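worker-03 picked up job from queue 'complexes'. Input manifest follows; two sequence lines, order preserved.
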Amino acid sequence: MAVSVQPVFERPKVLKTTATHYCAGCHHGIVHRLVAEAIDHFGVQDRTIGIGSVGCSVLLYEYFDIDVVEAPHGRAPAVGTGVKRVHPDSVVFTYQGDGDLAAIGTAEIIHAANRGELMTVIFLNNTTYGMTGGQMAPTTLPGQVTTTSPYGRDVKVEGYPIRMAELIAMLGGTGFSARVAVDTPQRVLEAGKTIRKAFGMQIEKQGFAFVEVLGACPTNWGMSALEANARVSGEMMGYFPLGVYKDITVSA
Amino acid sequence: MNNRLFVKGNEAVAMGAIEAGCRYYFGYPITPQNDIPEYMSREMPKVGGFFLQAESEVAAINMVLGAGAAGGRVMTSSSGPGISLKAEGMSFMAGSEVPAVIVNMQRPGPGLGGIDASQADYFQAVKGAGHGGYRLIVLAPWSVQELYDLGMLAFDLADRYRTPVMILGDAMLGQMKEALIPHSYHRPADLPEKDWVVCGKGRRNHANVVKSLMLKDGELEAHNWHLHAKYDLIKQRETRCATDNLDGAELLVTAFGCAARIARTAIDMARGEGMKVGMIRPVTVFPFPSEVYLQATARTPKVLCIELNNGQMVEDVRLSVDRQADVRFYGRPGGTGSLPTPEELLEQIRKHYKD
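worker-03 finished. Artifact:
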């Protein structure tokens, strides 16, 4: 008897078969998949251009089968601006970490959002500089020990963790700003929908779309994958509440 | 299109760029080059191009990187402090082989310095402003007409060699007005196709990646040798230099850009006094016309190098002649009142001609 097999779970078309270099328990792999699913969903692989940044995700082009430009540290939104102006019908996304986006690239992200650049920004906030080995990030939580805050982040000296999704939501050119997490299966599904929404906003020319994803960095946090996941669910969400902070397609 | 126009140098370089098909400009205001972004903001929309005033020079050069990587003919302009900020982006563009044109209307430094004419950014331009050991093609115009002509040529050189090209002007050239005869741009038929740009994969069976990170074993070294070979090719093919009265000269005077204009007047005065003075004016300062100096000094072993700085190009002159000539220097390092007069340079020519 012939058995009909229907696939229920496949590798997104946009993702290559290359094994990633990410550490066990790192959330980049999940977020890459969600971005790839969004590109597949809209069928725009042929006109999508990724802007890589400096950080753990710098090797983006090894995993995504799309055209990619590698930007200097923090400059992805500026590079994306240049790309988008030459190819206005392309789908441009940047993929940036917290050091890249919220420290060295603060000016570029604020102004790209404020101009309403038609691009999608995926911001992975894991409260540390992953690639350079766990230094203090602009999103490092108060008291958090890192290799450059060995006594814990002292807010009197180093200031407070920046809530980027809220900040970006305040700017005139922003069409969509949200914060999601990928610490539970349900939240992965929610994050997928949000990232899809952020690509849809760009494709429908609705303005700058920003998705902050809370991510785990077990290696630099000195935790097991499960402990790191629990830190996202607990401590991180306490300071960085999930939610949609701006969506111009929904009337108040 | 052959009317004589009376235009500013800053406008001439922008006019040449648009005529050559530049359709993207990203910049940030800084004296003495503000006429360039102002002109671009006014004229780009008329030709279907795009102008954007960026939040900083850093952002501007990275927009240029993006637009160049996407295949556009793109330009930015700035001066001293702004060029320093663009150094990071220029290094990335050299490494990832992105063509673009960068104009530096030099002002004196260091730091904020001043806003007058200067040639103090020679080292920065020809030795590579940013990190990692790379070269820019550097064009050194000396007139409004040359700003226009080289402004056009810069885009062809950038595309031909997939490399950033700098136009090294200064406050005097940018701000002064003189006659310009505009002419039509003719795209060289042999310019390579831009099959490497990011534009979306489309029907290509491979993705295009524009990057400078090379981590695989041997990958970066091979890439650097590739860049080196490219720079050698540029030296062979693209060295440009203007010479005058080299035969029988007792003294060679050399200068580039606006210093060469003042020197030109002084040389004419010296000839009026019966002195046999030749002139060498590099039009490209990278590649540097070393062979011209080597040949000229075989016959005339005395050179006076004049610059609006403390002595920068003179080092390349000395390297070029390899001790076969006596290379002397006269310069003024910049600031208000620091521009030498022709009489002042004539005095120097008299002095060095004699001893």
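worker-03 released lock.
Chain A has a mean pLDDT of 97.
Chain A touches chain B at residues 45-49, 51-52, 58-59, 61, 64-72, 75, 78-87, 90-91, 107-108, 110-111 (CB under 8 Å).
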